[in-house]
Design brief:
alpha/beta; 6 strands; 6-stranded parallel β-sheet; homotetramer; 204 residues
């Protein structure tokens, strides 16, 4: 399926593809054995998408989750963040928060650091998108239900056009992934595949 | 279960309990027969919660969805909003957007109008909460997965403490409601019941 | 001087041209005799600008200041808002908050209600501009140093292109008006005149 | 004059006290000879204020202006930012953007990076203040009319209580400094002196 996008007005937004999340030596791979393998196909497809976006001259934004040493920037009332603080994980300056090699930014691509779920929460993402006159977001990220869906919801609420590449997202199990891509994302924006995107980008 | 809340720092936030959503003569009751009956128990519990909040002196904020005539304020790229525009529904000045009688605001309560999913999206909710020095949100609303969960996600991302009264929310079916209260909300904040809240409020 | 604007991406944003501010029977005309006469030339020029914008098909947004009955929505720590509350002025539903006849919205134009200085503060202005794909703001409003400059500063900080029509703004005295248009606005955006705009719009 | 502040709810927010701005070897000292000397008294008073805040246990937030290499994060339509890009100044990773020694952060203090005028624009400042339950901002920064006043305006619009320490701010000349502290800041919040703050903090 060819997507109707204007490459000069579109950003590919990649979320949380960092070592702690998806690398076989990362935090979650150790905490939940099998999770890196589970995410690997989505990572591989996202790498294809990233290559296609670069060739087509589409702006790429890499969103990265990390907290300051000591985690003074977690919301202490939000359980998943309180747990991250208790575990001392995903701290600035560590290997864990770096992007995985397959999806690492190249010179000239925008990197945005976040502390919460949505890529817009307490970040300059909104301002950067306006400065670069980007009105359509193509979203890929992990996990589907939080960083990806949370950013898609927020983008829709702010007035953006949203396209989520569902097979470039992954969750902790099939049920959760399916729920998001079936019951939430089609109401918030469009859902498409990595193949849809690469086919579209290669025709630009 | 008694909630640990400071009534002077807490807001009860009710979302989208409007005629078009839950009244037996409203838009959704006609479009999806049985939906008003489905929501009725949550409405009844929310009415008890509202009474308890008023007695305890907890600030109440009523959030209302509505669009201008002609719907120039929908995000045209967001399917559920494009459909609302096509149906011409939920327009300012109509009976449908009024709060249902059982949950209507009384003098002195704050009413916030929204155009999207989250109660914060393009609204003054954040500013009002800061002015009134409110840092904990107790959320009840319909439907669970959109207005309630969307506002809970956004509030958590902004740094608020979030408590969702899950039996004061309802969705289009049990699966969707259960998903949100099991797989999303407990990670974003606390989940509690109408009875938890009324017990807590009556002890203030 | 011809402005380089794309009419399909530009909004004319008019701020606070309401009875309480500039009508001879309004609040400020009585509190500060001579203020309505002082503002009259700017109002007349803004009326020309509005006519030109309508003819050219440029989107018009009217921003209106007003508070709820009892002023629960002022920032009590902000002196000018605390004074507005003490005076009980500019309340929703009163004649004072209506736009003056010469600059009243026509059907299909967007009206945004605000409670603070900037037209973006706690409003849907940012979201409406994105939905309508508007990236350049042409600003006219009263008073120069607050609603106009405050909105211009905020728009620049959010990534918009800002053009202020300085002779479509007025302040409480010449010194204050001159300060803003000389020492602040040229650093934040572009400054132009009503004649620049009407010349530009008539050539569209 | 003793300020009425609750130290547990107050943040001292220091803005743009960086080498490029106020160090004798910095960008502005070279571009505008005499500017470092002009700012020195305000820097010295701010150092006293910072010491007093630390002793009193008041939260300190250091706000820092800097752009990515190549300046993809300036608003190209905002003249002062376009000039910064043309000059290639204030780039991440350079000495110029570091805080001056006298006002350098110590471990545990919050540092926020910004790209525009207001400390809130595209930053996590708002979220951090809510997480730490801080509702009063004591502002010191350079220059008075931009970073300090811009942040004060924005904070007031968002519902914070604002106190500006006027002699801990400085501008490019006396006229500009006086204008802000006389005609703008007293309407937006409270104005006080370094001595007011240190007297207050030492009594905590």
């Amino acid at each position: 399926m060819r997507l109707h996008i204007d490459p000069t007005r579109t950003a590919l937004v990649l979320l949380d593809y960092q070592n702690y999340n998806v690398h076989p030596d990362g935090y979650w791979a150790k905490a939940v054995p099998g999770s890196a393998e589970r995410a690997a196909p989505a990572v591989a497809r996202t790498a294809d998408v990233l290559t296609a976006a670069r060739r087509a001259g589409i702006t790429v934004v890499h969103v990265q989750n990390a907290w300051r040493e000591g985690h003074p920037d977690v919301n202490p009332h939000t359980p998943w963040q309180a747990e991250a603080k208790a575990a001392g994980r995903s701290t600035e300056g560590t290997w864990g928060i770096e992007f995985i090699d397959a999806l690492a930014p190249v010179e000239g691509e925008l990197v945005v650091r976040k502390r919460a779920v949505s890529g817009f929460a307490g970040t300059e993402l909104d301002r950067l998108l306006r400065i670069h006159d980007l009105s359509t977001l193509v979203i890929a990220g992990i996990i589907t239900n939080f960083a990806a869906e949370g950013t898609a919801r927020d983008a829709s609420d702010r007035g953006f056009r949203v396209i989520v590449l569902t097979d470039c997202c992954e969750s902790v199990n099939d049920e959760m992934h399916q729920f998001s891509i079936t019951h939430v994302l089609p109401f918030v924006g469009e859902v498409a595949s990595a193949a849809d995107f690469t086919e579209t980008a290669s025709a630009i």
